[in-house]
Amino acid sequence: MPNNATVNFMVAEIGWDPEVWEDPIAFEPERFLEIGGGEFDFTGIKEIRMIPFGGGRRMCPGYTLDMLHLEYFMANLVWNFKWETAWEVDLWKKPEFQGQS
Ligand code: HEM
């Protein structure tokens, strides 16, 4: 490789690896609850299954702000819209809220 070459990682494709994820493209958000008891690591410190914010020393420094903002965004979607399933979905897979004692 030449000096000063730019190396790009296919970050999205890393997150779709069928050797790491079962049916990676399927929308199954509950899969994240099942990994690490709901403490899925996306920082690349414990493992690399998907790294939306990069990893290592140049990892996105805004990721805690992002996560807070995304939770707020999701909460507003749930709050402001009436949600229905477009197809048959088993909503009772895990009938509890996280963090509930
Ligand atoms: C969902 C939203 C965001 C995503 C998915 C995201 C993702 C990323 C990714 C993948 C990188 C490259 C990391 C690497 O090279 O390993 C990065 C870098 C960076 N992000 Fe974000 N980011 C988000 C929002 C933000 C926000 C809100 C801020 C600031 C408040 C921010 C500030 C930065 C900065 C300054 C870098 C460069 C870090 C460096 O090169 O040392 N990002 N981000």
From TrEMBL:
<dbReference type="GO" id="GO:0016020">
    <property type="term" value="C:membrane"/>
</dbReference>
<keyword id="KW-0812">Transmembrane</keyword>
<dbReference type="InterPro" id="IPR017972">
    <property type="entry name" value="Cyt_P450_CS"/>
</dbReference>
<dbReference type="GO" id="GO:0005506">
    <property type="term" value="F:iron ion binding"/>
</dbReference>
<dbReference type="Pfam" id="PF00067">
    <property type="entry name" value="p450"/>
</dbReference>
<keyword id="KW-0503">Monooxygenase</keyword>
<keyword id="KW-0560">Oxidoreductase</keyword>
<dbReference type="InterPro" id="IPR001128">
    <property type="entry name" value="Cyt_P450"/>
</dbReference>
<keyword id="KW-1133">Transmembrane helix</keyword>
<keyword id="KW-0479">Metal-binding</keyword>
<keyword id="KW-0349">Heme</keyword>
<dbReference type="GO" id="GO:0016709">
    <property type="term" value="F:oxidoreductase activity, acting on paired donors, with incorporation or reduction of molecular oxygen, NAD(P)H as one donor, and incorporation of one atom of oxygen"/>
</dbReference>
<comment type="similarity">
    <text>Belongs to the cytochrome P450 family.</text>
</comment>
<dbReference type="InterPro" id="IPR002401">
    <property type="entry name" value="Cyt_P450_E_grp-I"/>
</dbReference>
<dbReference type="GO" id="GO:0020037">
    <property type="term" value="F:heme binding"/>
</dbReference>
<keyword id="KW-0472">Membrane</keyword>
<protein>
    <recommendedName>
        <fullName>Cytochrome P450</fullName>
    </recommendedName>
</protein>
<dbReference type="InterPro" id="IPR036396">
    <property type="entry name" value="Cyt_P450_sf"/>
</dbReference>
<feature type="binding site" description="axial binding residue">
    <location>
        <position position="60"/>
    </location>
    <ligand>
        <name>heme</name>
    </ligand>
</feature>
<keyword id="KW-0408">Iron</keyword>
<dbReference type="InterPro" id="IPR051103">
    <property type="entry name" value="Plant_metabolite_P450s"/>
</dbReference>
